Amino acid sequence: MSEPARSERQLTADAVSAAATARGEAGVRPTGPGERSTSVVRIRVGEVWLGVPCAAVETICVANEVTAVPRTPPHVLGLINVQGRAVPLVDLARYLGLTPAPDRDADDSKRAIVVTAGEMRAGLLCAQVCGIVELGQAELRPPHSVTDPQLKPVVVHEADVGERLCLLVDVAALLEGARVR
Prior knowledge:
This protein has helices at residues 13-22, 92-96, 171-177, and strands at residues 10-11, 37-45, 48-53, 57-62, 76-82, 85-91, 111-117, 120-126, 128-136, 155-161, 164-169. The chain is mostly beta strands and 181 residues long. A six-stranded mixed sheet has the order 1-4-7-8-6-5. Strands 9-2-3-11-10 form a five-stranded mixed sheet. The protein is globular, with a radius of gyration of 16 Å. It starts with 9 loop residues before the first strand and ends with a helix.
């Protein structure tokens, strides 16, 4: 059976990882023998780096064509077409109360990482998709640096990735809180 055709505007998480590796930006670090690890897709929302578990990522796409839907929360921008299915698009910066980085986020192309948790599915608008990073259990720590009341319910761990702090999110809590079904 052949793989379904993908447009140039939609990539799987594996393709993002391969592209980041080719550019030398993947940030993948080997873990020790027998050590459990967590794979996350690193995304930037404003000035904050988030880690989304790879197990929850369906695809990554550019969301330029958004269809507005009346009577939705302000953080739900509308619907995008992902492989023939209508998917709600959540503005993560707005939902999490983060300030977009105006100098870097002015690009017209909107990157969305499409995630699922149970029956919930949504595109999460972000400023940048960096790649996939493998984090060992020893690198994960409680999110003590998170004090913002909008971030606290969705961040489960934090980890240093290079010189940046990466906040690992609970996708189910994120989608449930954003009221995306």
